[in-house]
Design goal:
The chain is mostly beta strands. The protein has one domain (2-609): TonB-dependent receptor, beta-barrel domain (Maltoporin, Chain A). The chain has four helices and 30 strands. The chain has helices at residues 2-13, 117-123, 280-283, 402-406; strands at residues 58-62, 68-72, 81-85, 88-90, 113-115, 130-134, 142-150, 154-169, 172-185, 194-206, 210-226, 235-254, 257-273, 286-302, 307-321, 331-346, 352-364, 370-380, 386-398, 414-415, 423-436, 439-458, 465-484, 488-502, 510-511, 518-529, 534-545, 557-567, 575-582, 601-609. The protein has a 22-stranded antiparallel barrel. A four-stranded mixed beta sheet has the order 4-3-6-5. A two-stranded antiparallel ribbon has the order 1-2.
Length: 610
């Protein structure tokens, strides 16, 4: 609560400096409207950076979010959070730990949207709790160069350039953009070094009603950290090489109707070392490469009597690994069909009653199919403070990762189970959104039952963590509100959760993921304009965590903050000087149990946008 008082005090005190005019950031650097600090202090910005203090997302990080981050929504775990890029669902079949490793510069993407309930069930494949959805941002003629240095040997450079030509093909204007970035750091703890690189290129065809994107990206990451994935006090490393090729085409039909199609190919090469100092022959016993290709088509189309919401998607993956060799298969195909008709009626008070009712069907060549219902009833009235109220029920399914299926069941760091089956989630929620008195907000209450969720658990005296199926009921509520003044923007978020697990009699001393959640979590983000040339950016997260015997430092309560100050001299248009501190209070809270927290990181930089 002290954070809320502080940010509200800043917002109300700033007008004493005089009448201020809001200064908007250049569009290409705004990655999320609900997070104050758009870039991290210890790396270049990645898509996951915009989720660091997102009210509806809880990041569980190792080293720093850009190094490795498990993305969770509403108390879920890393493997049942989906990612959507245009029409397609981005999946990494090895492990959900790498879902957020998307080799795309945020300057090419729209702000992330968090999908839950019926909306998530309709458009995202192979995830069960929620999804983070990105769109392809229209290219414009603009550029950015960003340089920074800081504590722990931080060295960062980033470049972006977009260009819209006069060339027109089939009624669409041709545009292109490129991006390049690199960052090195020695890390906030010994042997916590990181080395990142990324290069992107995109060609875009765009008109007033359509946009086509052709994208190619490559990203490399080397991450060192003690206890990176295991609780055995070892200095571990993980080296990733990610290739992403993507095509997306979207046509806007007006009045919310659209057609969208896409395809992608992704290769992720992973080289994990449990002990970076082990003899050469034993340093790299965990080498895994996955390939996945997918295609999807979907949309919302007025069919006269009803409006049709539909989505069809197919994915095919392949695995080569030195360690994931104990399962029944190392390649598979998955598909999903979704059809949810929608009907709207005008009520006597002028509001609209909107009913969606349909279902989805998931199939795989190695698991049986699953039919799932999707239902949503909503009342919409733009003239009321509560502009939308809804009640929804949706069932979603996914398949376990190869790490859970193909790891040895009897020996090693990660003990798998080749007989794990399809995971199913049943979500019932009610929510509302609207605005009044200058405030805009949204709220939801929900109950979710996850069946056969794959959790990784620990048993006292047993070396290695084990993949166990758990049935777990989650009850919760979330609230997000926002308001802007001439001198300040403020976003507040609050989430409360409770869980009831059933491990079917399995011996479990502690859970790394399913029972690693915040009972209460408060976020507060403020952007304060200190005159025409200075901005103060303040992100905060306060949490009360469910106790976990694997957590060895930081306790069960934490306050984590990021504070940035920027200076934009009026005489040097487009130039911005910044100083930023992540983990401002140097919290030792372990977001993943047994994984040491990253300490305070301070950096300073200069950027020039044109």
């Amino acid at each position: 609560m002290n954070v809320r008082i502080l940010v509200l005090s800043l917002c109300t005190a700033v007008p004493l400096f005089g009448q201020l005019t809001p200064v908007d950031l250049p569009e290409l650097t705004v990655y999320s409207p609900r997070v104050a600090n758009q870039s991290p202090a210890g790396s270049f910005a990645m898509p996951v950076s915009a989720l660091r203090f997102e009210p509806q997302v809880d990041l569980q990080t190792r080293n720093q979010p850009e190094a490795q981050a498990d993305v969770t929504i509403r108390g879920g775990i890393f493997e049942n959070t989906g990612f959507q890029l245009g029409a397609v669902s981005l999946v990494d079949p090895q492990t959900g730990h790498y879902y957020a490793d998307i080799a795309v510069a945020p300057a090419m993407l729209g702000a992330p949207e968090i999908l839950t309930g019926a909306e998530h069930a309709l458009v995202t494949m192979d995830s069960t709790v929620g999804a983070v959805a990105y769109t392809w941002r229209p290219v414009r003629t603009s550029g950015l160069m960003d340089l920074a240095a800081g504590e722990n040997g931080l060295d960062r450079q980033e470049f972006y350039q977009g260009y819209v030509s006069d060339t027109v093909i089939l009624g669409q204007r041709v545009a292109a953009d490129v991006a390049w970035a690199r960052a090195d750091s020695d890390g906030a703890v010994p042997y916590g070094d990181s080395h990142f690189g990324r290069v992107n290129a995109r060609v875009q065809l765009a008109s007033a009603a359509a946009q086509t994107d052709f994208f190619a990206g490559y990203q490399t990451k080397f991450v060192g950290w003690p206890n990176l994935y295991t609780p055995f006090n070892s200095d571990e490393t993980d080296k990733l090489q990610n290739v992403l090729l993507d095509f997306n085409h979207r046509i806007d039909l007006g009045e919310g109707n659209f057609l969208e199609a896409g395809a992608y190919h992704r290769r992720n090469k992973d080289d994990y070392a449990f002990n970076r100092f082990a003899p050469v022959g034993a340093v790299h016993p965990f080498q895994t490469t996955t390939w996945i290709s997918g295609a999807a088509v979907g949309g919302r189309v007025d069919a006269g009597m009803v409006t049709l919401n539909f989505h069809a998607e197919v994915l095919a993956d392949d695995l080569q690994s030195t360690s994931l060799t104990s399962g029944h298969y190392d390649s598979r195909t998955m598909s999903k069909l979704a059809l949810v008709p929608e009907k709207s009626w005008v009520l006597a008070d002028g509001s609209h009653l909107v009913v969606k009712a349909g279902g989805t069907y998931d199939e795989s060549n190695h698991d049986g199919g699953a039919a799932s219902p999707v239902v949503e009833i909503a009342r919409e009235q733009t003239a009321d403070p509560v502009q939308r109220f809804y009640l929804s029920y949706a069932t979603t399914t996914e398949l376990p990762s190869y790490t859970a299926l193909n790891s040895s069941p009897t020996a090693g760091l990660f003990l798998g189970n080749a007989n794990l089956g399809r995971e199913t989630s049943h979500d019932l929620e009610a929510g509302a959104s609207g605005q009044t008195g200058g405030w805009a907000g949204q709220a939801a209450v929900f109950y979710r039952r996850d069946d056969n969720l794959v959790d990784w658990t620990y048993v006292n005296g047993v070396f290695g963590r084990r993949a166990n199926a758990v049935d777990i009921a989650t009850t919760g509520a979330e609230l997000v509100v926002r308001r802007s003044w001439s001198a300040c923007d403020l976003v507040l978020g609050y989430t409360v959760l409770t869980k009831a697990p059933d491990y079917h009699g399995a011996l479990v001393s502690a859970s790394f993921y399913a029972l690693n959640y915040a009972r209460q979590r408060l976020t507060a983000a403020a952007v304060v304009r200190l005159g025409r040339e200075f901005q103060l950016r303040f992100d905060n997260e306060a949490r009360i965590q469910e106790p976990n015997l694997l957590r060895t430092a930081g306790g069960n309560q934490a306050l984590i903050s990021s504070l940035g100050l920027s200076y934009r001299p009026a005489a040097w248009r487009g130039t911005e000087f910044t100083v930023q501190a992540d983990n401002l209070w140097n919290s030792s809270f372990q977001e993943v149990p047994a994984v040491p927290a990253a300490g305070r990181q301070i950096s300073a930089g200069v950027a020039y946008a044109w």
